[in-house]
Amino acid sequence: MRIAIAGDLHGLWDAVDDRILERLDPDVVLVVGDLGEGDDRMSRMVARLPYPVACILGNHDAARDAHGEVLSRQLHLLGDVHCGWGLRRLEPPGLAVVGGRPASSGGGYVLSAAVRSVWGPVPLETSIARITAAAATVSAQDPLVLLAHVGPTGLGSAAHDVCGRDWCRPARDWGDLDLAAAINRIRRHRPLPLVVFGHMHHRLRGGGQRRSFLLDRHNTAYLNAAVVPRHRQDEQGYPLRHFAMVHLQGNQLLWAAQCWFDAEVTLRRQECLYQVPGG
Question: pLDDT at residue 279 above 90?
Answer without folding.
Answer: no
